[in-house]
Design a protein that fits this description.
Length: 82
């Protein structure tokens, strides 16, 4: 059975999710993500997407920040049920 994790780059606009873990693909920029406060357990919402789909603006911890789609694809999330 192959279960693929939902990643932040696939989170629908306006949907809330909780960061589950940083995937191994995040290794080149892992320290940057952690320094920005992207840690497991943090709640995030996609608030804007650039016209060409990259970067994404997310809201977390009361502030917004932009991530490249490649960076967001390295963050596993769990959707929050409304």
């Amino acid at each position: 059975m192959n279960i693929s994790a939902l990643t932040l780059d696939r989170l629908p606009f306006g949907q809330e999710a909780v960061i589950a873990k940083l995937l191994p693909e995040s290794l080149p920029f892992r320290r940057k993500l952690l320094a920005m406060g992207i840690t497991p357990g943090c709640q995030v919402t996609v608030t804007r997407v650039a016209p060409l789909g990259d970067p994404l603006e997310i809201k977390m911890r009361g502030f917004t920040l932009c991530l490249r789609r490649k960076e967001a694809a390295a963050i596993a999330i769990v959707e929050v049920a409304k």
